[in-house]
């Protein structure tokens, strides 16, 4: 299943400048998802991170992983319309720089879920130019 930015906005509550997913390239609800995000060089963050050598901050990569997981989870009927809240981030590793102008691909898959508490953990990976750039687990509560 492919989704545009407008279709993504119908699923998750994030909006610019904090909407960090542009497209859904593939999704099997409740199982796995692949999204993309264009790292726009015009983003304000690059004025200070870092002048002369801009790099996408690691927290943005983690937020891309979380929003990808949000789409996967909120696409399930049981969580539709909920607000996804961070409960935890674990095992995050930054392996490659992500630069302005890059388009990253984010993969996430369901790792565990406590349906009775509306809590789920997804394993996620960010790829830049086909190379693994970031990996980690995000735990979310749907409220």
Automatic annotation (TrEMBL):
Keywords: Lyase. One of its GO terms (molecular function) is (3R)-hydroxyacyl-[acyl-carrier-protein] dehydratase activity. Pfam families: FabA (PF07977). The keyword Lyase applies. Gene3D superfamilies: Hotdog Thioesterase (3.10.129.10). It comes from the Bacteria. Its EC number is 4.2.1.59. Belongs to the thioester dehydratase family. FabZ subfamily. NCBIfam families: PRK00006.1 (NF000582). PANTHER family: 3-HYDROXYACYL-[ACYL-CARRIER-PROTEIN] DEHYDRATASE. This is 3-hydroxyacyl-ACP dehydratase FabZ. It comes from Dysosmobacter welbionis. The gene is fabZ.
